[in-house]
Amino acid sequence: HTLHSLITILGTWALIQAQPCSCHALALAWTFSYLLFFRALSLLGLPTPTPFTNAVQLLLTLKLVSLASEVQDLHLAQRKEMASGFSKEPTVGLLPEVPSLMETLSYSYCYVGIMTGAPGPCC
């Protein structure tokens, strides 16, 4: 069942890297589509996930959509900064940069975030 969470994370990370300006909508569609597939595994004749795996997959879906939203906000702030002639306004509450694959994996598998649904140290 770890493979399902990795597929969700890697797919979302790829969308964030490819389309940062519209990654929120893309990540929303991707993660919830995969969650639908994940929940329908028993209908396809595959082993039914455990309730704990279901909970982890749902929390990952919510965390990754939130992360994509933060990346999109960062991208829009950067575009606004470039359009305004590079006037550096304080960007309070934004990510400092687009997270790398390792940062995305660390954020996704943060124990506190998985068990409580709270954001991890990345954001």
From TrEMBL:
<keyword id="KW-0732">Signal</keyword>
<dbReference type="GO" id="GO:0071617">
    <property type="term" value="F:lysophospholipid acyltransferase activity"/>
</dbReference>
<dbReference type="GO" id="GO:0030258">
    <property type="term" value="P:lipid modification"/>
</dbReference>
<feature type="signal peptide">
    <location>
        <begin position="1"/>
        <end position="18"/>
    </location>
</feature>
<dbReference type="GO" id="GO:0016020">
    <property type="term" value="C:membrane"/>
</dbReference>
<protein>
    <recommendedName>
        <fullName>Lysophospholipid acyltransferase 7</fullName>
    </recommendedName>
</protein>
<dbReference type="GO" id="GO:0008374">
    <property type="term" value="F:O-acyltransferase activity"/>
</dbReference>
<dbReference type="GO" id="GO:0044233">
    <property type="term" value="C:mitochondria-associated endoplasmic reticulum membrane contact site"/>
</dbReference>
<comment type="pathway">
    <text>Lipid metabolism.</text>
</comment>
<comment type="similarity">
    <text>Belongs to the membrane-bound acyltransferase family.</text>
</comment>
<dbReference type="InterPro" id="IPR049941">
    <property type="entry name" value="LPLAT_7/PORCN-like"/>
</dbReference>
<dbReference type="GO" id="GO:0006661">
    <property type="term" value="P:phosphatidylinositol biosynthetic process"/>
</dbReference>
